[in-house]
């Protein structure tokens, strides 16, 4: 019998199950795009029939880091940029968990960029939602890695001299096997994409455009948006790496020209997840490691019997 | 060193098999009933450069490198750089011989490979030989090796010559070679051995030097291993099945041993992008219910500062190991020092609350790593094993029975789902994982996936169910509870009373104090000082945090004055004692060494007699004396 009975429990869930009864209202500003992520995640979790006790949501620091304060599940609000390494180890330790990591664009593409790149490369079976508002919000409006060139802020009084980072292209090139962009103003698409992302076996990256009405007033509200998978103007095969790459490049350019493109950019269902690769080479047990500590019949090996003979 | 010891130094270049040859030599002599202890000296370089390993061999237990050495086997450096005029590094080709002469004792033996080394290139070589009454054996080891096999087998030829001169029964070595070498290379190596053994006996008077390997017998079965082996085995026996890391000398040894062994134990090893991730992954695994560890050396540990603080406030159990080397920054990557002590005790913002052990020996490294896991998981706190390049890499014989212990996979203070059903929850159904009032400061945790256990872990200050809060009363309650855990751990360690060591006559009026890996050397120095007519005892401290205040102050109260011995340049450990005890600065002087080489017993004897007792200057800069406060 599993020591973690919430995992795989058959339940009919209502999205209110994921709203903590006690927690006061989110502290996000009125009109903040972060509400859209919370709503989409709740909707996705309910649609997938997940139970709050089988989900682990890790976050970084910033407004986005509060996601798991307002979402009822196991949560780990970590430090700036470090939600991914904690998330992927929890998944390795207990692969039955549904693990979702989240953070802002500074958190994921700036300070945590190295973790982002390597988590994508390794194709861990987790979902990463990046709240991309093209600004540092909680620290009051500094330029972020995705701020457009020329963007003025208190830390870049003459406008940023840097071209913005290309999150979708970076993700694809690093090795993510599911890459999508959605926007807070597009709740149905957002929920559907998060459902797909969680279901995907491998690293799924959702770049979630979340408008910041307080510190990024210049930025668009990400409307009107275009769903590239549905629009007849955009024909491409999102299982083709090269076509995905071109579409991403165009999308990243278009954002700063006022056109908001969203949708599923790359979906590779064939690539094995990191967990599968690790099991294939014999470096990860088939049974969840976390269960072993509760298994009274397990025979724990010791160094005296296993390793001492080579020292004699 | 005593008259009946063999201290054998095999010198050559990096990549020439010095480490494996010396390990086989040490193991063979251990099997023959002797006590052995090795000291490694090597550069941060893959191929070439001055490298040696000393193997000290004695009939009696040894716990340190010796004072000097009496038998040099000097091989060539296959990858020596060609010197140009005025090169900083000088003539590397001759270094396996020239660099090793200063520490060779009078009457000592020099065996060198005349196929590769020419003594004409060493200034005053013949004069020094005569002056020191050294016995020189110039043998073309390379040619013997080439005749039967490959050039690298000159190491075997050198070992055979050693056996002939030091009266070591050839079968002692040959039976180990048979175990250690694959068939294909065993045969030519045995031919090389026999040929070299016969040649030296024919061409030289092998009985001329008064150096003979001792004989002895162990009263129980021994194993030859390093501090790194012992740390890894301690972790495995505590049920650690997850390690995450990034390579860095000298911590890499533990990482490699774990990575090689974990797959067959059904565990997981993760080599990750940096040390921030390394520590964070270990935390993620531990948070999800797997006993996990990470580690690094100074530079990598700097990157772990951030997750370390997160582990403290979220009360995530984690065991880290830190293998010190000479700093600051990249410093001297392959040389030992103890100067990361303050870094490890205090790094990360806020009030640190963690456990730090500094084992002195391989056996202590095993026991203290196990205790680190027990404490980390019971008290939900980071526990760190602080060691160094010296303890990590030196080999010594340890009774096999030290490891004959039951495994302990216990996860510590974790609730089961049945227990969670009766545990307090808030109105959202979140488990109150951080309750204010608990007896020993520990509030049991739940694990993701357990029904009824969900809560928020956060690096912000938080309420009992994990909600972020800046409420002053809650803050004080949570902070007090977390600090209370450290007090509880101190009480548990006092009750155990196992890790700090007092050595020497109880009524001694003078003291030596040290921590971690220098302890064995300090104890050997105390033996010499007591033979010299002084009355000296030693306190070796392994518990750095929480600090054993009562034990250390009792020791200091019992002596007139003390010399604190440590491998730092700023007397960090003496500073820790003063900070923790709020005094004794007028009783403690320091002897420091930070030139890249560990203390030898005579360094300490000299510091004690010359500087502390007689108040005279030390003759050179190998060590530094810092007088007590007020002098």
UniProtKB/TrEMBL annotation, chain A:
UniProt cofactor(s): [4Fe-4S] cluster
Taxonomic source organism: Haloferax profundi
Keyword Transcription regulation carried by entry: no
Keyword check for Oxidoreductase: yes
InterPro entries for this protein: 2-oxoacid:Fd_oxidoreductase (IPR051457), OFOB (IPR011896), THDP-binding (IPR029061), TPP_enzyme_TPP-bd (IPR011766)
Gene3D superfamilies linked to this entry: 3.40.50.970
Region spans: Disordered: 1-25, 142-164
Name this polypeptide is given: 2-ketoglutarate ferredoxin oxidoreductase subunit beta
Gene Ontology BP term (one): cellular respiration
Sequence ranges assigned to domain Thiamine pyrophosphate enzyme TPP-binding in this UniProt record: 61-207
Automatic annotation (TrEMBL), chain B:
Coiled-coil ranges (or none): none
Domain Pyruvate flavodoxin/ferredoxin oxidoreductase pyrimidine binding: 234-479
Keyword line: Oxidoreductase
Ranges where the Pyruvate:ferredoxin oxidoreductase core domain occurs: 508-581
Enzyme class: oxidoreductase
Domain Pyruvate/ketoisovalerate oxidoreductase catalytic: 15-198
Top-level taxon of origin: Archaea
InterPro entries per the UniProt record, alphabetical: 2-oxoacid/accept_OxRdtase_asu (IPR022367), PFOR_II (IPR033412), Pyruvate:ferred/Flavod_OxRd (IPR050722), Pyrv/ketoisovalerate_OxRed_cat (IPR019752), Pyrv_Fd/Flavodoxin_OxRdtase_N (IPR002880), Pyrv_flavodox_OxRed_cen (IPR002869), THDP-binding (IPR029061), Transketo_C/PFOR_II (IPR009014)
Catalytic activity: 2 oxidized [2Fe-2S]-[ferredoxin] + 2-oxoglutarate + CoA = succinyl-CoA + 2 reduced [2Fe-2S]-[ferredoxin] + CO2 + H(+)
Keyword Transmembrane helix listed: no
Gene Ontology terms: biological process: organic acid metabolic process; response to oxidative stress; sulfur compound biosynthetic process
Example of a GO MF term: 2-oxoglutarate synthase activity
Region (Disordered): 422-472
Compositionally biased region (Basic and acidic residues): 422-439
The UniProt record lists the keyword Oxidoreductase: yes
Pfam families in UniProt: PFOR_II, POR, POR_N
Entry EC no(s): 1.2.7.3
SUPFAM superfamilies: Pyruvate-ferredoxin oxidoreductase, PFOR, domain III (SSF53323), Thiamin diphosphate-binding fold (THDP-binding) (SSF52518), TK C-terminal domain-like (SSF52922)
Quaternary data: Heterotetramer of the KorA, KorB, KorC and KorD subunits.
PANTHER family the record matches: 2-OXOGLUTARATE OXIDOREDUCTASE SUBUNIT KORA (PTHR32154:SF20), PYRUVATE-FLAVODOXIN OXIDOREDUCTASE-RELATED (PTHR32154)
Name the record gives this protein: 2-oxoglutarate synthase subunit KorA
């Amino acid at each position: 019998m599993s020591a973690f009975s919430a995992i795989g429990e058959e339940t009919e869930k209502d999205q209110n199950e994921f709203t903590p009864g006690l927690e006061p209202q989110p502290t996000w500003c009125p009109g903040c795009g972060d509400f859209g992520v919370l709503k989409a995640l709740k909707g996705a979790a309910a649609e997938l029939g997940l139970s709050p006790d089988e989900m682990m949501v890790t976050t970084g620091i910033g407004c986005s880091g509060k996601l798991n304060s307002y979402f009822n599940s196991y949560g780990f609000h970590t430090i700036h940029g470090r939600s991914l390494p904690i998330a992927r180890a929890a998944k390795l330790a207990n692969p039955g968990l549904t693990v979702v990591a989240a953070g802002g664009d500074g958190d994921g593409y700036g300070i945590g960029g190295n973790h982002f790149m390597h988590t994508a490369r390794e194709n861990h079976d987790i979902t990463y939602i990046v709240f991309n508002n093209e600004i540092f919000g909680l620290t009051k409006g500094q330029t972020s890695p995705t701020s457009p060139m020329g963007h003025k802020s208190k830390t870049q009084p003459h406008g940023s001299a840097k071209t913005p980072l290309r999150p979708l292209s970076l993700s694809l090139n690093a090795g993510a096997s599911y890459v999508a962009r959605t926007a807070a103003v597009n709740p149905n698409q957002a929920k559907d994409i998060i459902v797909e992302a969680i279901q995907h076996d491998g690293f799924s990256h959702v770049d979630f455009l979340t408008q910041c009405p307080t510190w990024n007033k210049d930025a668009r509200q990400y409307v009107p948006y275009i769903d590239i998978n549905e629009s007849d103007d955009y024909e491409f095969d999102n299982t083709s790496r090269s076509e995905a790459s071109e579409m991403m490049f165009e999308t990243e350019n278009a954002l700063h020209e006022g056109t908001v493109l969203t949708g599923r950019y790359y979906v590779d269902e064939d690539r094995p997840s990191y967990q599968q690769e690790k099991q294939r080479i014999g470096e990860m047990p088939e049974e969840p490691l976390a269960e072993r500590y509760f298994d009274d019949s397990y025979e724990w090996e010791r160094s005296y019997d296993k390793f001492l003979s080579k020292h004699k | 060193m005593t008259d009946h010891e063999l201290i054998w130094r095999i010198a050559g270049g990096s990549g020439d098999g010095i480490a494996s040859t010396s390990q086989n030599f040490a193991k063979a002599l251990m099997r023959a009933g002797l006590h052995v202890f090795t000291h490694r000296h090597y550069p941060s370089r893959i191929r070439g450069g001055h490298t040696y390993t000393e193997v000290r061999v004695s009939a009696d237990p040894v716990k340190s490198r010796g004072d000097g050495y009496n038998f040099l086997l000097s091989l060539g450096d296959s990858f020596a750089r060609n010197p140009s005029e005025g090169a900083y590094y000088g003539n590397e080709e001759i270094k396996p011989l020239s660099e090793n002469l200063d520490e060779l004792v009078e009457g000592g033996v020099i065996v060198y490979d005349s196929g590769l080394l020419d003594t004409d290139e060493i200034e005053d070589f013949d004069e020094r030989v005569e002056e020191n009454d050294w016995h020189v054996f110039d043998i073309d080891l390379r040619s013997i090796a080439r005749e039967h096999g490959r050039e690298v087998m000159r190491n075997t030829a050198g070992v055979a010559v050693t056996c002939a001169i030091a009266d070591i029964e050839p079968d002692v070595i040959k039976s180990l070679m048979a175990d250690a070498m694959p068939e294909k290379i065993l045969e030519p190596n045995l031919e090389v051995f026999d040929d070299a053994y016969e040649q030296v006996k024919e061409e030289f008077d092998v009985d001329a030097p008064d150096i003979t390997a001792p004989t002895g017998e162990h009263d129980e079965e021994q194993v030859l291993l390093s501090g790194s082996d012992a740390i890894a085995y301690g972790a495995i026996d505590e049920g650690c099945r997850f390690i995450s890391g990034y390579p860095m000398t000298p911590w890499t040894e533990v990482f490699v041993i774990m990575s090689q062994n974990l797959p067959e134990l059904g565990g997981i090893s993760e080599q990750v992008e940096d040390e921030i991730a390394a520590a964070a992954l270990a935390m993620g695994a531990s948070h999800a219910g797997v006993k996990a560890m990470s580690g690094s050396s100074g530079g990598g540990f700097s990157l772990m500062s951030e997750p370390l603080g997160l582990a403290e406030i979220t009360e995530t159990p984690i065991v880290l190991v830190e293998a010190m080397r000479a700093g600051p920054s990249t410093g001297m990557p392959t040389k030992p020092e103890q100067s990361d002590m303050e870094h490890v005790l205090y790094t990360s913002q806020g009030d640190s609350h963690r456990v730090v052990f500094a084992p002195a020996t391989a056996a202590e490294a095993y026991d203290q790593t196990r205790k680190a896991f027990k404490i980390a998981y019971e008290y939900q706190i980071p526990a760190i094993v602080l060691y160094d390049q010296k303890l990590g890499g030196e080999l010594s014989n340890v009774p096999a029975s030290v490891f004959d212990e039951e495994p302990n996979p216990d996860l510590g203070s974790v609730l089961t789902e049945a227990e969670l059903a009766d545990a307090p929850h808030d109105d959202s159904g979140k488990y109150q994982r951080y309750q204010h009032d608990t007896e020993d400061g520990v509030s049991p945790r739940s694990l993701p996936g357990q029904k009824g256990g969900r809560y928020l872990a956060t690096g912000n200050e938080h309420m009992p169910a994990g909600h972020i809060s800046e409420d002053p009363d809650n803050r004080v309650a949570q902070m007090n509870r977390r600090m209370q855990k450290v007090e509880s751990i101190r009480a548990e360690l006092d009750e155990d009373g196992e890790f700090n060591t007092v050595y020497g006559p109880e009524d001694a009026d003078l003291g030596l104090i040290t921590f971690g890996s220098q302890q064995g050397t300090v104890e050997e120095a105390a033996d010499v000082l007591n033979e010299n007519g002084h009355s000296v005892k030693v306190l070796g401290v392994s518990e750095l945090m929480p600090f054993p205040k009562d034990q250390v102050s009792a020791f200091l109260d019992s002596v007139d004055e003390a010399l604190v011995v440590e491998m730092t340049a700023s007397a960090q450990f003496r500073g820790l004692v003063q900070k923790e005890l709020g005094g004794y600065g007028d009783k403690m002087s320091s002897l420091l060494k930070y030139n890249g080489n560990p203390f030898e017993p005579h360094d300490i004897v000299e510091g004690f007699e010359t500087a502390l007792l007689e108040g005279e200057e030390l003759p050179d800069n190998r060590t530094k004396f810092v007088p007590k406060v007020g002098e």
